[in-house]
Amino acid sequence: MSAKRVLGRSGIEVSAMGLGCWAIGGPFTMDDKPVGWGEVDDQESIRAIHCGLERGITFIDTADVYGAGHSERVVGEALKGRRNSVVIATKFGLTFDETAKAITGSNASTDYIQQACESSLRRLGIDVIDLYQFHLNDHDMKEAETVRDALESLVDQGKIRFYGWSTDFPERAELFAQGPHCTSVQFQLNVLDAAMDSVKMAEKHNLAGINKGPLAMGLLSGKYTENSSMGSQDVRGNESPSWMEFFKDGKPNPVWLKKLESIREILTSNGRSLAQGALAWIWATSPNTLPIPGFRTVAQVEQNSAAMEFGPLLPEQMKTIDQILNR
């Protein structure tokens, strides 16, 4: 396959996968519960980003709230002197305390959006954000037009180039799609959780469908069994939020593990690792999809980026997976 994709209506060409930078933000909390992925080594994070760039990855996705500002700072450090070789996406909408490493609420006012954008530019050490994404998944649609207008204003000011909404609700993304500089929607998509309504909506409006959770929060990495348990600082641990469907009570959810076992053989065909097969499924689903697997180590980036060499699954493999999973 061509290891390239077009970032929706922007016409910008990017690598077929990006680097998802939630995990490298390190620990942070919401309502005193962990929403990070545990401790991180910033130097390893920087080496991993460099490894991705060397292997042809040109799309990096982060958010101001990841690690309460820390992920953006690490990305900014890693991209010093390399800014022109990469498309940078970040997000806004959640408020946080950098010192306390805690989410404090949300804000979608026009003044706040301006301020959040300028703060992200500073942390990233850049002059313009390529893709600025609204991070409030279920924000009121009546108020969303004001948010869209604020983003068009940031385009006019030269602070951002394009924007999108990180939402699993297709009708919300559709509202944003009416804006001239909207070019993407970010939603959860993986072989176990095929969000086809969002995929079709992205195709209909020629938006890039940026895929969070492409490896089902790590379940599709293949390294977890029913006996695995997640650490206390991990968003997948026993205090995990209600939306964490792939892990329950700090362990992999047996329902999803069973589904995974039923399709493992297809995903690992042709010498692929399980994670590489999971990414291959996403590429075969639509020309608009753009998975952004998370990482904390160089080894993870090496394995994920090697998936681009294999390309998408074949149509008959896709059909068989649908039959096995009854969809």
Task: Describe the protein.
The chain has an 8-stranded parallel beta sheet. A 4-stranded mixed beta sheet has the order 5-4-9-8, with no helix packed on it. It is an alpha/beta fold. The radius of gyration is 18 Å and the shape is globular. It has one domain: TIM Barrel (Alpha-Beta Barrel). It has 10 helices and 16 strands. 36% of the residues lie in helices and 19% in strands.
Keywords:
10 helices; alpha/beta; globular; TIM Barrel; four-stranded mixed β-sheet; 327 residues
Question: What is the topological layout?
Answer:
Layout: E1 4-6, E2 13-15, E3 19-20, E4 29-30, E5 33-34, H1 42-54, E6 59-61, H2 70-78, E7 87-92, E8 94-97, E9 102-106, H3 110-124, E10 129-134, H4 141-156, E11 160-166, H5 170-176, E12 182-188, H6 196-204, E13 208-212, E14 247-248, E15 251-252, H7 254-267, H8 274-285, E16 289-291, H9 298-310, H10 315-324
Parallel strand pairs: 3-6, 4-9, 6-7, 7-10, 10-11, 11-12, 12-13, 13-16
Antiparallel strand pairs: 1-2, 4-5, 8-9, 14-15
